[in-house]
Amino acid sequence: MPAKPSAEVLAAAKESLNLGNVLDSGGGCTLYGVAERAEIAKKENRLPLGLTENIKVVKRVHPDGILTYDDVELDEDLFLLKLRRMQDKMF
Questions:
Q1: What is the pLDDT of residues 38-76, one digit of tens each?
Q2: Pair type for strands 31-37 and 7-13
């Protein structure tokens, strides 16, 4: 079995994010990455930076706020999201 993930790069807001905003990814205008222990990220339902591109915000997020899965509308057809869900089930 593969090693359990030990860290995550989470999505944090560069500016206020409002309902309907469309996100880019790290290095773009809306988000930056924050490192966190994987167990904390999972416990707090935090959103990995790698899943953010072209998704909509459904809850207001303040500047420097770390996004959760509940803050966005994910594209369930996205291959990367499907892989992530498989990984989460493994660990």
A1: 999 999 999 999 999 999 999 999 999 999 999 999 999
A2: antiparallel
pLDDT digits (tens, 9 = 90+) for 4-22: 899 999 999 999 999 999 9
Tell me the fold of 7-90.
Type Iii Antifreeze Protein Isoform Hplc 12 (3.90.1210)
SS3 56: strand
Cα(1)–Cα(58) distance, integer angstroms: 36
CB-CB contact of 14 with 32 (8 Å): yes
pTM for the full predicted model = 0.91
Evaluate whether 60 touches 18 at the Cβ level (below 8 Å): yes
The length of the chain is 91
